[in-house]
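Tokens for chain A. Residues wanted.
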């Protein structure tokens, strides 16, 4: 999904770590920093999307109720252009090529996505 979004936006990427340096290295949730290459700026998928578009983000975290609150906020903001995603099962990367900087992203964020 992420690669499809990057292709749509004509962003070059390498999944084999064959270059000497990268602008960004996108770390998947749950992967430790120490297991990632160090030849570029290490970011999460959420950080990468923010770096690209600078959307307004409403992030919902916590132990219980994240999905409910995320869905509720998305429904309340239904009259404006909102992209719901994150740990709710809709990777934000799937909407990346459609998003504009003025969009609002309502995200359910797990502890792995915040690390």
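Reply:
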């Amino acid at each position: 999904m992420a690669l499809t979004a990057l292709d749509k936006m004509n962003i070059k990427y390498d999944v084999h770590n064959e270059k000497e340096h990268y602008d960004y290295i996108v770390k998947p949730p749950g992967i430790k920093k120490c297991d990632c290459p160090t030849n570029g700026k290490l970011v999460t998928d959420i950080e990468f999307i923010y770096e690209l578009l600078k959307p307004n983000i409403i992030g919902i975290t916590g132990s219980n109720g994240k999905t409910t609150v995320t869905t509720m906020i998305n429904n309340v903001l239904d009259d404006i252009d909102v992209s719901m995603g994150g740990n709710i099962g809709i990777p934000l990367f799937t909407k990346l090529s459609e998003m504009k900087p003025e969009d609002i992203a309502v995200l359910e964020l797990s502890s792995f996505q915040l690390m």
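The mean pLDDT is 86. The longest strand covers residues 56-60.
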